[in-house]
Specification:
The structure holds 2 protein chains of 2 kinds. Chain A contains 23 helices and 23 strands. Chain A is an alpha/beta fold. Chain A starts with 8 loop residues before the first helix and ends with a strand. By secondary structure, chain B is of the alpha+beta class. In chain B, strands 2-1-5-3-4 form a 5-stranded mixed sheet, with no helix packed on it. The N and C termini of chain B lie far apart (71 Å). The chains are: A alpha/beta, B alpha+beta. Chains A and B meet through loops of A and helix 2 of B.
Chain lengths: 651, 252
């Protein structure tokens, strides 16, 4: 039998071909779906959109009702007459080896048998918008799920543009999962509301539960974490990142039972209160499989040193604040501890790291592939001293305090660099000197030809610099440039930044994600519509001259999935130009544009399978649609919307 | 157009009698029509004011309606050339697009870098350790519809804090604060008023999770141990009062 861990869809088809006379008829459609067979690491899984739930299935009626295909897939027994039929069990066995959600979506469209077998063999489901589908529909469609990834609020909620009580509460999902997926093992949530009650419910109702990851969620406290620690006997992953939570103390860490030892991932780096270092040390020494440990700022360097000595097998480390005054002896001990960590590939944290302390990490840097220095305001010299120790660096996050000189050091020392993110140390300080300019990013691009991901916050940029950058690095997949002063032109020519983004989309054929900024006219969008044929995500702010801008994008960007727009002069004509498009997208966000309620009503009337939601602001006029959020759904209008969120109907 | 004017008229009247939180005295100019009022929605790290910018040269309003023309143009708050910056910087909500946990970290970094000289040998005794992060605590007041957050590190004394809290919650008054700030608050006669339920009492939750009356300990110790503040009704503070009364007795 088949002992391979996972296979590509190509291999699956080959196997089936050997065993079924139907195979040859089915072979040709799959030539376009060949993909690699490596299992998708956790981080990258999130970038796939599960189309299965919303693929343009011919049987789904226009009212969004559930078709015959969506009924619980039946298991078919083999009858002697079915000699030419392919046995379900074998088909399922083969398809179970497929990992990629895109491959699985393709498989489910082949025929009824394959649809059914794929449904039964699917273990992980990714839901990019929790309101696009209901938990009941998911459970009916995929009866044997063990792992769920759910995303909730629109991304602009990260920047306070979405009211607090907007929704995306996970509880209703957990209630359904408790009866339909009692053996659920993994739950990964992003921008969802999670209460302590929900965490306790989770901990008590899923005996096999193993992995919890909460990214940018809110609504819970350390009390909820205590429930998880207390009751989840087989927990392997507890990953709490960047959440807005109430911190009632570090006692939750003490709630892990004394004999508990299965943890592999522990990330509490963004919790603010103290945890008991002894408790942490004992926990870490018990958990021999621990690979990822990211501690918060309360952990001293003494404690960190002991943690490293007891867990040298770590592959990812969040090193806490790193700010203690060290004696030479302590420094040597710490350096020695880092030297024990031969497998470290990710280093983050370092909130108040001084240059002196930072040198203690050098022995562990030789295999480092991701270094996150975005919490510590290093100067250029300090970065320049550190980088030569990290020859294998592929991803680097820094603050703009390193200046253009620091970025020159990056270009000089990091030939393998694929991703750079430069965050502003003080976004509201307009007098900031030493921040990065266009020279910095040009220097990086000159030294790092493999660069494909950039996030760059700056206060000035030129069209020529951007053109140079993409000439040096034509393989960009993610290009996110934020010129922090809205509507700012090229500072040398005083022209709009249209040509900059024009050069990006013309040169970077593989571009998937683009964020634009600066002074931009409709010409930018004309370029985008014409050239950005692989672009899936576009973020626009304070840009464009007329409805044409958005129209170009809606008409030209065939692969567009997520569009978020704020403070642009796009009105109803622009909104409605995307009529045909929104059902193939995950969502559209438009705020502070010129869309009116009437425009929203027309959209809702023409496209009944979209939810068109408007958030009104206090004191605004009745007819303006201040914030519009449009998304496809098979679950109908939201039933849990707060008063500030109106679902626009065609009435 | 008549309805528009009628609407305007109604709005104006309403403002005259509008209940607001704030100190009595000269009123701050009412916020312009169309901008966010009150505390709806979260604030960013700095106090932010919602501004709508019309920056494109040919930006047009898609003909909405007459009294909708009040999409505000920014009062140049974002321009680098503006000499008269308001003291609390007016910023656009959610711009630049930085997550709030990054903003807090930056403020701390800035103050700690300002304090720190650039290179020091490890054995030096005079290097300043970076100051601990900003001490934001939630402040709730019984009966108020929303909570506030204050950074205790920004204040130097109880009277500073009480003044600031007083501005935030206008019905909260400490009364006479002598040189000892809140300590005077606990004179016996004041407490009697409290016990009658006529006053508000500031209390805080300390590191051990106990609720204490504000003002007992030296200011620095208070800042270290305070986890959150609650301004409770006097009638609810009865449990806290006896300790305070005892303290007063032992002092006088």
């Amino acid at each position: 039998h088949l002992f391979i861990h996972s296979i590509s869809i190509f291999q699956a088809v080959l196997i089936i071909l050997h065993l079924s006379p139907f195979g040859s008829l089915l072979f040709s459609p799959f030539s376009s779906h060949l993909s690699s067979s490596s299992p998708i690491p956790h981080r990258e899984r999130e970038s796939f959109d599960s189309e299965s739930l919303l693929s343009p299935f011919p049987q789904i009626s226009s009212s969004g009702g559930i078709s015959a295909m969506d009924r619980s897939p039946k298991r078919r027994s083999i009858s002697p007459d079915d000699a030419t039929r392919f046995p379900d069990e074998v088909l399922e066995r083969v398809l179970a080896l497929l990992d990629s959600p895109k491959d699985r979506s393709a498989v489910s469209l082949v025929c009824r048998d394959w649809y059914s077998a794929e449904s039964w063999s699917r273990r992980h489901v990714f839901i990019g918008n929790c309101y696009s589908v209901s938990p009941e529909i998911v459970a009916r469609r995929f009866p044997r799920i063990r792992s769920v990834t759910l995303k909730g609020k629109p991304r602009f909620s990260d920047f306070n543009l979405v009211p607090d009580n907007w929704g995306a509460d996970v509880h209703s999902w957990l209630l359904v999962f408790a009866s339909e997926y009692p053996f659920l093992e993994e739950l990964r949530l992003k921008r969802m509301r999670v209460t302590d009650e929900s965490l306790e419910f989770l901990a008590l109702n899923f005996p096999n539960f193993r992995a919890l990851s909460l990214l940018s969620c809110d609504g819970f406290s350390t009390g909820g974490l205590a429930s998880v620690a207390t009751h989840c006997k087989n927990l392997t992953e507890l990953d709490i990142q960047e959440n807005g939570i109430d911190d009632f103390g570090g006692e939750w860490l003490s709630c892990f039972p004394d004999n508990f030892n299965t943890l592999e991932v522990l990330n509490f780096s963004h919790l603010n209160t103290d945890v008991n270092p002894d408790v942490l040390e004992r926990l870490v020494s018990r958990c021999r499989s621990l690979k990822v440990l990211k501690v918060n700022r309360s952990i001293s360097l003494d404690c960190l040193q002991r943690l490293l000595v007891s867990a040298p097998q770590l592959t990812e480390l969040g090193a806490g604040s790193f700010s203690q005054e060290l004696t030479p002896r302590q420094h040597a001990d710490l350096e020695h501890a880092f030297g024990l960590c031969k497998n470290l590939s990710v280093l983050t944290g370092l909130w108040e790291a001084t240059a002196m302390n930072l040198s203690a990490v050098y022995p562990a840097c030789s295999r480092l592939s991701f270094l996150n220095l975005s919490y510590t305001a290093l100067q250029s010299q300090e970065l320049a001293s550190l980088l030569p120790h990290c020859p294998c660096l592929r991803r680097l996050w820094v603050l703009d305090s390193v200046g253009d000189k620091g970025l020159e050091a990056v270009g000089a020392n990091c030939p393998s660099l694929e991703e750079i993110r430069v965050f502003p140390a003080d976004p509201f300080d307009e007098d900031m000197i030493n921040a990065v300019t266009e020279s910095g990013i040009v220097a990086v691009s000159q030294g790092c030809p493999k660069l494909h991901y950039i996030l760059y916050f700056c206060r000035q940029m030129t069209n020529a610099a951007v053109a140079t950058v993409v000439r040096n690095c034509p393989d960009f997949t993610h290009f996110r440039l934020c010129i922090m002063n809205p509507g700012q032109p090229d500072h040398t020519t005083n022209q709009p930044m249209d040509e900059a983004f024009g050069s990006v989309v013309k040169t970077c054929k593989k571009l998937q994600r683009l964020s634009v900024s600066g002074l931009l006219t409709d010409l930018t969008f004309k370029y985008i519509g014409k050239y950005a044929k692989n672009m899936e995500t576009l973020s626009v702010a304070f840009a464009g001259s007329s409805d044409l801008g958005m129209q170009y994008v809606m008409e030209g960007c065939s692969k567009l999935r997520k569009l978020e727009i704020r403070d642009c002069p796009f009105g109803n004509a622009a909104l409605l130009s995307g009529l045909e498009k929104y059902e193939s997208m995950r969502s559209l966000w438009m705020s502070a544009c010129n869309v009116t309620m009437n425009g929203c009503r027309v959209l809702a009337r023409e496209m009944p399978r979209l939810n068109v939601e408007v958030m009104k602001e206090e004191g605004s006029d009745d007819c303006k649609a201040d914030k519009v959020y449009v998304y496809r759904t098979v679950a109908g209008p939201r039933r849990d919307a707060p008063p500030s969120v109106l679902t626009v109907s065609s009435l | 157009m008549a309805t528009a004017e009628a609407d305007m008229y109604v709005t104006i009247n309403f403002e005259e009698t509008e209940l607001r939180l704030g100190l009595p005295g000269p009123t701050v100019p009412p916020p312009p029509l169309g901008s966010r009022t009150g505390a709806a929605g979260k604030r960013g790290f700095s106090e932010t004011v919602d501004l709508k910018l019309n920056l494109s040269p040919s930006a047009k309003m898609d003909g909405c309606d007459p009294h909708g023309a009040a999409i505000k143009t920014a009062n140049n708050a974002c321009s680098n050339n503006d000499p008269a910056k308001p003291p609390a910087k007016a910023q656009v909500v959610g711009w630049p697009p930085i997550r709030s946990f990054r903003k807090n970290v930056m403020a701390v970094q800035k103050s700690s870098n300002d304090a720190q000289p650039s290179k020091k040998p490890a054995a030096a005794t005079t290097t300043a350790t970076p100051p601990p992060p900003a001490a934001f605590v939630k402040v709730s007041m019984d009966g108020a519809p929303y909570l506030r957050k204050v950074d205790l590190k920004l204040y130097n004394s109880y009277s500073d804090l009480s003044e600031s809290l007083g501005k935030m919650f206008s019905s909260f008054t400490i009364g006479n604060c002598g040189p000892n700030g809140m300590k005077d608050f606990m004179s016996e006669s004041k407490l009697v008023d409290i016990l009658n339920g006529s006053e508000y009492v500031p209390s805080y939750e300390d590191k051990d999770g106990d609720w204490m009356l504000v003002g007992d300990v030296p200011w620095e110790m208070f800042v270290e141990s305070c986890k959150r503040l609650r301004i409770m009704k006097g009638s609810e503070a009865i449990g806290l009062a006896p300790r305070a009364v005892e303290k007063c007795k032992s002092r006088s």
